[in-house]
Fold this sequence. Notes:
Blueprint: H1 6-25, E1 36-43, E2 49-56, H2 60-72, H3 74-84, E3 92-97, H4 100-125
Parallel strand pairs: 2-3
Antiparallel strand pairs: 1-2
Amino acid sequence: MRKNSIxxxxxxxxxxxxxxxxxxxxxxxxxxxxxxxxVAVEVAPDLKTCKAYISVLGDEQAAADTLVGLRSxxxxxxxxxxxxxxxxxxxxxxxxxDQSIAYGVNMTRLIDEVVKPERxxxxxxxxxx
Length: 129
């Protein structure tokens, strides 16, 4: 994987900010969950394509519905993005569901389950001073 240039990093941040605003404030599709956030954006160096990683707070059905809603509104989002971000080309958008937050929560829960029996045993055994 190649390293992003400073310009590309700046473009990624600007596109991420604008996509978040568009999704939160301008799209009225009921399929899109209210707690939808843009976690990361990768715009290709030639500005032709953009991968937007989306996180949805809710169950798997809400996430799937949100992706369907975003994909159906892709043209509108792209048009709004063209108006708000001054780029030579407005990138073609691809929405990808980001599972990293759910994965992190699940791993934390699993770690707590493993550590809890050790803590309980330490509390029962006590320390003799």
